[in-house]
């Protein structure tokens, strides 16, 4: 979605900001409306993947988690964009909404609070992807769903490593500066 939206707005999203096709970079470069649109699309595709997998294969108890992780990884590594996509967080939230919507709603509030308090979206991201397999393991009383989700968690944390380096160096774009439009093209 962000790739096509950036083409419509004549913004080279793959060479500016964090240079990825995720909702955060879309928001930083094209404004909050674009960021929300991209986030909803990216979350929606993972949510739909989980729901459809469960409907098509109801006898496979872990198919929802597997489909969700596949959707997250497909977002991060899309073959049609030379394996250069987003960082997967919005898709991770969509997957989580489909797996346990009550937990996901609480998680969204936690993410929003952490982002507002720290000024960095990545703090909420790292917290959410770390807490989710732990919570679902406890809630589901097994380790298979969390083990499947840990695949997405590990990749998302790895994809955000540069954000943490920029926070340490003081060069990460904070939410407040992004909303002022200081970093838009």
Task: List its traits.
185 residues; mainly alpha; 10 helices; globular
Question: How would you portray this structure in words?
Answer:
- By secondary structure, the protein is an all-alpha fold.
- It is 72% helix and 0% strand.
- Helix 4 packs antiparallel against helix 5, helix 4 runs parallel beside helix 8 and helix 7 packs antiparallel against helix 8.
- It is globular and about 45 Å long.
- The model has no long low-confidence stretch (mean pLDDT 90).
How do the strands and helices of this protein lay out in sequence?
Layout: H1 2-8, H2 23-30, H3 32-56, H4 63-76, H5 89-99, H6 101-118, H7 121-140, H8 144-159, H9 161-169, H10 175-179
Helix pairs in contact: 2-3, 3-4, 3-5, 4-5, 4-8, 5-6, 6-7, 7-8
Could you list the spans in which at least 5 consecutive residues all have pLDDT below 50?
none
Q: How many extended strands?
A: 0
CA-to-CA gap between the ends?
A: 18 Å
Estimated share of beta-strand residues: under 5%
Number of domain modules: 1
Net shape: globular
């Amino acid at each position: 979605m962000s790739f096509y939206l950036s083409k419509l707005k004549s913004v080279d999203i793959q060479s500016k900001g964090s240079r990825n096709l995720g909702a955060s970079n879309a928001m930083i470069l094209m404004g909050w409306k674009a960021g929300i649109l991209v986030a909803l699309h990216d979350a929606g595709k993972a949510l739909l993947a989980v729901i459809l997998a469960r409907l098509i294969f109801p006898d496979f108890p872990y198919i929802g988690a597997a489909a969700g992780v596949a959707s997250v990884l497909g977002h991060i590594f899309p073959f049609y964009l030379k394996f250069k996509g987003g960082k997967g967080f919005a898709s991770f939230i969509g997957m989580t909404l489909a797996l346990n919507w009550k937990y996901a709603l609480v998680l969204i509030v936690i993410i929003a609070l952490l982002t507002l308090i720290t000024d960095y979206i990545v703090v909420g991201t790292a917290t959410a992807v770390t807490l989710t397999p732990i919570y679902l393991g406890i809630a589901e009383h097994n380790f298979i769903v969390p083990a499947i989700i840990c695949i997405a968690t590990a990749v998302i944390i790895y994809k955000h490593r540069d954000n943490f380096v920029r926070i340490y160096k003081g060069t990460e774009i904070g939410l407040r500066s992004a909303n002022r439009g200081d970093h838009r093209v």
